[in-house]
Amino acid sequence: MSQAAEETRIGPLVFLPGPNKGKYPHCHSLYVEGDKILIDPASDRERLKRLKDEKGVDEVWLTHWHEDHFAHLDLFEDALLSIHALDEPPLGDIETFMDWYGMDPDRDKSLRESWKPLMLEQFHFIPRKPHRLFSGNEELALPSCGKVRVIAAPGHTPGHCAFYFEDFSLLCTADYDLTPFGPWYGDPGSSMEDTICSVTALSQIGAKWVMTCHETGLFENPPDRIWTDYTLVIQRREEALLTFLATGPKTMQEIVEQWIVYKKRREPIEFYSWGEKATMKKHLEALMKQDRVRKIDGRYALK
Ligand SMILES: [Zn+2]
């Protein structure tokens, strides 16, 4: 049973918390009353149904292509859909969706097979063609809440967008969620470097309200420390990896079993070891690019 917290209203902007603190597979949503815009429809399904019936939803904006942000999009088939152009492809095809997570059709066949029913039943995946594609450089004027800046904030995904509601100084940073866990940049299309640039740029806006899509969700005047701690997680992961490699050359499997990202072995193991590997792969690629690590006979070693 879902445990949705209370809504919070800032002018016409209504923060809709997701169940279980908006932790995966849920997220928090934002509703723009008056303009009837819903951002990321993957919070409490029953509440979203009521919202649709009682207040109406004319538009849905997605911050990016991940399933924990569109899980209840099926409720809004008639609404106009917007997403950044770069994040459009996976919404239209379930096979493309899995490709974008780096699941290889041959090598990761069983993972793909276990994801398919989950995508259809839990995340209600229905192929969608967006009506509008953001460039990430828009200034929109909305009747109910004034100027909204659509800000390209790549890294988490290539087309990840933030939304800044200037008149209410509310910045939705989406999956730069300022959690102690830190950012996700493990997809083939994700970028660790872009994540750091985007988080830094968003922190410099100086918004009074920062809304994220998971956990705490709504921050009033977040201190600088919250932003810097968040990007520091990336540095700590790298340090832990380098410390491990300092003990000798390691295979990817040995690196995964260190659980540097998730801190401990978690179930379902197939899902978490895939996430651990995807993230460590990004770090190893960066370290090899910097000529600090090399790969010899299938093992990673310090140079
Ligand atoms: Zn995401």
Task: Describe the protein in words.
The chain is an alpha/beta fold and 303 residues long. It has 2 domains: 8-222, Ribonuclease Z/Hydroxyacylglutathione hydrolase-like (Metallo-beta-lactamase, Chain A); 236-302, Arc Repressor Mutant, subunit A (Orthogonal Bundle). Helix content is 32%, strand content 21%. It is built from 9 helices and 15 strands. It has helices at 19-22, 45-54, 67-70, 94-100, 109-121, 192-203, 224-245, 252-256, 269-289; strands spanning 8-10, 13-16, 29-32, 37-39, 59-61, 80-84, 132-134, 137-142, 146-152, 161-165, 170-174, 209-212, 218-220, 293-296, 299-302. A 7-stranded mixed beta sheet has the order 1-2-3-4-5-6-7, with no helix packed on it. A 6-stranded mixed beta sheet has the order 8-9-10-11-12-13, with helices on one face. It has a two-stranded antiparallel ribbon with strand order 14-15. Strand 8 (137-142) and strand 9 form a beta hairpin. Helix 6 runs antiparallel to helix 7 (224-245). It is globular and about 60 Å long. The chain starts with 7 loop residues before the first strand and ends with a strand. The model has no long low-confidence stretch (mean pLDDT 96).
